[in-house]
Design goal:
Largest sheet: 4 strands, antiparallel
Organism: Streptomyces sanyensis
Protein name: Regulator of SigK
Order of helices and strands: HHHHHHHEEEEEEEE
Distance between the termini: 27 Å
Pfam family, one: zf-HC2
Keywords: Cell membrane, Membrane, Transcription, Transcription regulation, Transmembrane, Transmembrane helix
Main location: membrane
Radius of gyration: 29 Å
Oligomer: single chain
Length: about 250
Protein backbone atom coordinates (compact mmCIF):
# COMPACT_ATOMS: atom_id res chain seq x y z
CA UNK A 1 0.00 0.00 0.00
CA UNK A 2 1.49 3.38 -1.00
CA UNK A 3 1.47 6.58 1.06
CA UNK A 4 -1.36 8.13 -0.95
CA UNK A 5 -3.59 5.17 -0.09
CA UNK A 6 -2.68 5.42 3.59
CA UNK A 7 -3.79 9.08 3.69
CA UNK A 8 -7.28 7.92 2.70
CA UNK A 9 -7.72 5.53 5.65
CA UNK A 10 -8.30 8.01 8.51
CA UNK A 11 -12.09 7.56 8.55
CA UNK A 12 -11.94 3.78 8.37
CA UNK A 13 -9.34 3.75 11.14
CA UNK A 14 -11.52 5.82 13.50
CA UNK A 15 -14.49 3.52 12.83
CA UNK A 16 -12.37 0.35 13.38
CA UNK A 17 -13.14 -0.80 9.84
CA UNK A 18 -9.59 -1.77 8.82
CA UNK A 19 -8.24 -5.28 8.58
CA UNK A 20 -5.52 -6.20 11.12
CA UNK A 21 -2.84 -5.77 8.43
CA UNK A 22 -4.18 -2.38 7.31
CA UNK A 23 -4.60 -1.28 10.92
CA UNK A 24 -0.96 -2.02 11.77
CA UNK A 25 0.37 -0.37 8.61
CA UNK A 26 -1.76 2.74 9.16
CA UNK A 27 -0.66 3.06 12.80
CA UNK A 28 2.97 3.01 11.68
CA UNK A 29 2.12 5.71 9.14
CA UNK A 30 0.24 7.69 11.78
CA UNK A 31 3.34 8.08 13.96
CA UNK A 32 5.16 9.80 11.09
CA UNK A 33 2.29 11.84 9.62
CA UNK A 34 1.12 14.84 11.70
CA UNK A 35 -1.67 15.73 9.25
CA UNK A 36 -3.24 12.26 9.47
CA UNK A 37 -2.85 12.26 13.26
CA UNK A 38 -4.70 15.58 13.46
CA UNK A 39 -7.46 14.34 11.15
CA UNK A 40 -7.86 11.17 13.23
CA UNK A 41 -8.25 13.25 16.41
CA UNK A 42 -10.89 15.45 14.78
CA UNK A 43 -12.83 12.50 13.35
CA UNK A 44 -12.62 10.62 16.66
CA UNK A 45 -13.95 13.68 18.50
CA UNK A 46 -16.95 13.80 16.18
CA UNK A 47 -17.57 10.05 16.49
CA UNK A 48 -17.32 10.30 20.28
CA UNK A 49 -19.83 13.15 20.41
CA UNK A 50 -22.31 11.13 18.33
CA UNK A 51 -21.75 7.93 20.32
CA UNK A 52 -22.34 9.70 23.62
CA UNK A 53 -25.63 11.29 22.60
CA UNK A 54 -28.43 10.43 25.02
CA UNK A 55 -32.16 10.37 24.39
CA UNK A 56 -34.38 10.55 27.47
CA UNK A 57 -37.68 8.67 27.28
CA UNK A 58 -40.55 8.20 29.69
CA UNK A 59 -39.82 5.53 32.34
CA UNK A 60 -41.02 2.02 31.57
CA UNK A 61 -44.21 1.14 33.40
CA UNK A 62 -45.33 4.76 33.93
CA UNK A 63 -48.84 4.19 32.63
CA UNK A 64 -49.49 0.98 34.68
CA UNK A 65 -48.31 2.71 37.86
CA UNK A 66 -50.55 5.72 37.28
CA UNK A 67 -53.52 3.50 36.49
CA UNK A 68 -52.85 1.41 39.61
CA UNK A 69 -52.76 4.59 41.72
CA UNK A 70 -56.09 5.70 40.28
CA UNK A 71 -57.57 2.28 41.00
CA UNK A 72 -56.79 2.64 44.71
CA UNK A 73 -58.78 5.83 45.09
CA UNK A 74 -62.04 5.10 46.89
CA UNK A 75 -65.20 5.52 44.81
CA UNK A 76 -68.62 6.53 46.16
CA UNK A 77 -70.96 3.50 46.31
CA UNK A 78 -74.20 3.61 44.31
CA UNK A 79 -77.11 5.23 46.15
CA UNK A 80 -79.85 2.73 47.04
CA UNK A 81 -83.28 3.54 48.46
CA UNK A 82 -82.20 3.40 52.15
CA UNK A 83 -79.17 5.64 51.45
CA UNK A 84 -81.40 8.04 49.52
CA UNK A 85 -83.74 8.39 52.53
CA UNK A 86 -80.68 8.99 54.77
CA UNK A 87 -79.47 11.74 52.44
CA UNK A 88 -82.90 13.35 52.61
CA UNK A 89 -82.77 13.27 56.44
CA UNK A 90 -79.29 14.85 56.43
CA UNK A 91 -80.59 17.70 54.35
CA UNK A 92 -79.18 19.49 51.39
CA UNK A 93 -76.21 20.95 53.24
CA UNK A 94 -74.57 17.48 53.46
CA UNK A 95 -74.29 17.17 49.68
CA UNK A 96 -71.84 20.06 49.19
CA UNK A 97 -69.70 18.63 51.98
CA UNK A 98 -69.53 15.27 50.20
CA UNK A 99 -68.64 16.98 46.93
CA UNK A 100 -65.96 19.03 48.68
CA UNK A 101 -64.46 15.91 50.27
CA UNK A 102 -64.37 14.17 46.89
CA UNK A 103 -62.65 17.18 45.31
CA UNK A 104 -60.06 17.30 48.09
CA UNK A 105 -59.35 13.57 47.71
CA UNK A 106 -59.01 13.92 43.94
CA UNK A 107 -56.75 16.96 44.30
CA UNK A 108 -54.52 15.11 46.74
CA UNK A 109 -54.29 12.05 44.49
CA UNK A 110 -53.51 13.94 41.31
CA UNK A 111 -51.26 16.35 43.19
CA UNK A 112 -49.18 13.36 44.32
CA UNK A 113 -48.99 12.05 40.76
CA UNK A 114 -47.97 15.48 39.48
CA UNK A 115 -45.25 15.73 42.11
CA UNK A 116 -43.94 12.26 41.20
CA UNK A 117 -43.95 13.16 37.50
CA UNK A 118 -42.10 16.40 38.27
CA UNK A 119 -39.43 14.47 40.17
CA UNK A 120 -39.09 12.02 37.29
CA UNK A 121 -38.60 14.94 34.89
CA UNK A 122 -35.97 16.50 37.16
CA UNK A 123 -34.12 13.19 37.41
CA UNK A 124 -34.16 12.79 33.63
CA UNK A 125 -32.92 16.37 33.17
CA UNK A 126 -30.06 15.81 35.63
CA UNK A 127 -29.14 12.56 33.87
CA UNK A 128 -29.08 14.33 30.49
CA UNK A 129 -26.86 17.09 31.90
CA UNK A 130 -24.41 14.54 33.30
CA UNK A 131 -24.33 12.71 29.96
CA UNK A 132 -23.70 15.98 28.11
CA UNK A 133 -20.87 16.88 30.49
CA UNK A 134 -19.22 13.48 29.98
CA UNK A 135 -19.63 13.84 26.20
CA UNK A 136 -17.85 17.21 26.34
CA UNK A 137 -15.03 15.74 28.44
CA UNK A 138 -14.73 12.78 26.08
CA UNK A 139 -14.50 15.10 23.08
CA UNK A 140 -11.89 17.24 24.86
CA UNK A 141 -9.69 14.18 25.46
CA UNK A 142 -9.91 13.07 21.84
CA UNK A 143 -9.11 16.57 20.59
CA UNK A 144 -6.33 17.29 23.11
CA UNK A 145 -3.02 18.34 21.48
CA UNK A 146 -1.13 15.64 23.38
CA UNK A 147 -3.67 12.85 22.74
CA UNK A 148 -1.97 9.62 21.73
CA UNK A 149 -3.72 6.59 20.29
CA UNK A 150 -3.06 2.89 20.70
CA UNK A 151 -5.12 -0.04 19.49
CA UNK A 152 -5.23 -3.77 19.17
CA UNK A 153 -7.36 -6.83 18.48
CA UNK A 154 -9.16 -8.58 21.33
CA UNK A 155 -10.56 -12.10 21.60
CA UNK A 156 -13.33 -13.19 19.22
CA UNK A 157 -12.27 -10.61 16.62
CA UNK A 158 -13.20 -7.53 18.68
CA UNK A 159 -11.06 -4.43 18.29
CA UNK A 160 -10.16 -1.83 20.91
CA UNK A 161 -8.59 1.61 20.88
CA UNK A 162 -7.46 3.74 23.81
CA UNK A 163 -6.78 7.48 23.61
CA UNK A 164 -4.70 9.02 26.41
CA UNK A 165 -4.23 12.70 27.24
CA UNK A 166 -1.69 13.33 29.98
CA UNK A 167 -2.47 17.04 30.03
CA UNK A 168 -6.15 16.32 30.82
CA UNK A 169 -5.26 13.34 33.03
CA UNK A 170 -7.96 11.28 31.31
CA UNK A 171 -8.37 8.39 28.87
CA UNK A 172 -11.02 7.24 26.39
CA UNK A 173 -11.68 3.60 25.52
CA UNK A 174 -13.41 2.53 22.28
CA UNK A 175 -14.31 -1.01 21.26
CA UNK A 176 -16.17 -2.68 18.42
CA UNK A 177 -17.34 -6.24 17.87
CA UNK A 178 -17.49 -7.04 21.57
CA UNK A 179 -19.31 -10.35 22.20
CA UNK A 180 -22.18 -10.23 24.66
CA UNK A 181 -20.98 -11.11 28.17
CA UNK A 182 -22.60 -14.01 30.06
CA UNK A 183 -26.02 -13.35 31.59
CA UNK A 184 -25.75 -11.32 34.79
CA UNK A 185 -22.26 -10.11 33.88
CA UNK A 186 -20.70 -6.94 32.51
CA UNK A 187 -17.39 -5.86 31.02
CA UNK A 188 -15.47 -3.70 33.50
CA UNK A 189 -12.58 -1.37 32.66
CA UNK A 190 -9.52 -1.01 34.88
CA UNK A 191 -6.56 1.32 35.13
CA UNK A 192 -3.30 -0.63 35.52
CA UNK A 193 -1.12 1.15 38.08
CA UNK A 194 1.99 -0.96 37.51
CA UNK A 195 0.12 -4.16 38.28
CA UNK A 196 -2.47 -2.77 40.72
CA UNK A 197 -5.87 -2.61 39.04
CA UNK A 198 -8.14 0.37 39.70
CA UNK A 199 -11.85 0.48 38.58
CA UNK A 200 -12.40 2.70 35.54
CA UNK A 201 -16.03 2.13 34.54
CA UNK A 202 -18.50 -0.39 33.13
CA UNK A 203 -19.47 -1.12 29.55
CA UNK A 204 -23.08 -1.51 28.44
CA UNK A 205 -23.55 -5.29 28.04
CA UNK A 206 -26.16 -4.77 25.31
CA UNK A 207 -23.84 -2.76 23.03
CA UNK A 208 -21.19 -4.36 20.83
CA UNK A 209 -19.55 -1.03 19.93
CA UNK A 210 -18.93 1.73 22.49
CA UNK A 211 -16.88 4.86 23.11
CA UNK A 212 -16.38 5.54 26.83
CA UNK A 213 -14.67 8.18 28.92
CA UNK A 214 -12.86 6.07 31.52
CA UNK A 215 -13.86 6.86 35.11
CA UNK A 216 -11.36 8.54 37.38
CA UNK A 217 -8.04 10.27 36.73
CA UNK A 218 -5.29 8.76 34.63
CA UNK A 219 -2.62 9.65 37.22
CA UNK A 220 0.32 7.25 36.92
CA UNK A 221 -1.48 4.42 35.13
CA UNK A 222 0.71 2.64 32.60
CA UNK A 223 -2.08 0.67 30.95
CA UNK A 224 -5.59 -0.71 31.25
CA UNK A 225 -7.47 -3.98 31.32
CA UNK A 226 -10.95 -5.37 30.66
CA UNK A 227 -12.50 -8.19 32.69
CA UNK A 228 -15.89 -9.87 32.97
CA UNK A 229 -17.49 -9.05 36.33
CA UNK A 230 -20.88 -9.53 38.02
CA UNK A 231 -23.52 -6.94 37.11
CA UNK A 232 -22.72 -3.71 38.95
CA UNK A 233 -18.97 -4.29 38.83
CA UNK A 234 -16.36 -5.31 41.40
CA UNK A 235 -13.85 -3.39 43.54
CA UNK A 236 -11.12 -5.73 42.28
CA UNK A 237 -10.94 -8.05 39.22
CA UNK A 238 -12.49 -11.46 39.82
CA UNK A 239 -11.66 -13.03 36.44
CA UNK A 240 -8.78 -13.28 34.01
CA UNK A 241 -8.58 -10.21 31.73
CA UNK A 242 -10.09 -10.44 28.28
CA UNK A 243 -7.83 -7.53 27.26
CA UNK A 244 -4.66 -5.84 28.53
CA UNK A 245 -3.36 -2.73 26.79
CA UNK A 246 -0.34 -0.56 27.56
CA UNK A 247 -0.84 3.18 27.35
CA UNK A 248 1.29 4.91 24.74
CA UNK A 249 4.15 6.88 26.22
Amino acid sequence: MNTADLHMLTGAYVLHALSPEEHGEFERHLRACPSCAQEVRELAATAGKLAAAVETTAPDGLKPRVMARIATERQEPPVVARQARRVNRLGRRAVPRLVLAACVAAAAAFGGIALWQHQQAEDARAQAQRAEQRADELTAVLAAPDAVVSGGELADGARATVVVSRSRNQAVFAASGMPEPPAGSVYQLWYDDEGAMRPAGLMDPSQTAQVLLMDGPLDGATGMGVTVEPAGGSPQPTSAPVALMSFPA
